[in-house]
Amino acid sequence: MKALIDRILKDGKCYPGGILKVDKFINHQMDPNLMKDIAVEFIRRFASTKVNKILTIEASGIAPAIMMGFLMNLPVVFAKKKKPNTLDNMLATKVTSFTKQRDYDVVISRDYLCPDDHVIFIDDFLAYGNAAKGIIDLCKQSGATLEGMGFIIEKAFQDGGQYLREQGVRVESLAIIESLENCEIKIKNA
Q1: Which residues does the annotation say bind xanthine (predicted)?
Q2: Could you give the percent of the chain with pLDDT greater than 70?
Q3: What is the pLDDT of residues 167-184, one digit of tens each?
Q4: 34 in a labelled binding site
Q5: The CATH number of the domain where 61 resides is what?
Q6: What is the 3-state secondary structure (H, E, C) of 91-120?
Q7: Average pLDDT of the chain to the nearest whole number
């Protein structure tokens, strides 16, 4: 997706340890026009997929998932990284955050992820696939069908995409980072 790739190259910042900071337009300050374009591209890529719900995990996946749900007229459910006192009847799994270097108990209500659901998972980054693995676990627990996963940015050098594809998961990534060596952003097909 050219507009996204151009924006990463213009405004993305690289830090040692394989960290790409895109907080100027994706996960702190957001560009709503870019989010709309991202949602439209995900909709195009998943057009032939049977889906009745968009699924994400808080927090940075919420904006593109909401935009996608709005355009498709579908509900959006996000898994929470902290159990609210008001949440009963829940499914839970553990997820390790690459960026924050900590574990989260990720929860979702059984009322919103059910056996009849056909879901697409949307998130900002795919690195080692930890959030994605947690979502796969939650879908298995609920009986929901995971139809595919969409990521704004995939860091191909961190193996999450390879793992998911080897498990038979349909993965759609809008920008694939091949390398961040020497803090130089190298994007596939850029």
Answers
A1: 20, 27, 155
A2: 96
A3: 999 999 999 999 999 889
A4: no
A5: 3.40.50.2020
A6: EEEEEEECCCCEEEEEEEECCCCCCCCEEE
A7: 91
> Does 128 count as an annotated binding residue?
yes
Non-local (6+) Cβ contacts of 123 within 8 A are 56, 57, 60, 61, 131, 132, 149, 150, 151, 152
In which element (H, E) is residue 79 found?
A: strand 76-79
Number of domains in the chain: 1
Residue 141, CA distances (Å) to 100, 101, 120, 129, 136 in order: 26, 26, 16, 18, 9
Q: Is 36 annotated as a binding residue?
A: no
Q: What is the DSSP letter of 87?
A: -
Range of the domain at 78: 2-187
Q: What is the pLDDT of residues 9-56, one digit of tens each?
A: 999 999 888 889 998 898 888 899 999 999 999 999 999 999 999 999
Q: Is 65 annotated as a binding residue?
A: no
Annotated binding residue at 3? Answer: no
Structure tokens at 113: 């992820």
User: Which two three-digit tokens encode residue 132?
Assistant: 């994605």
Q: Is 163 annotated as a binding residue?
A: no
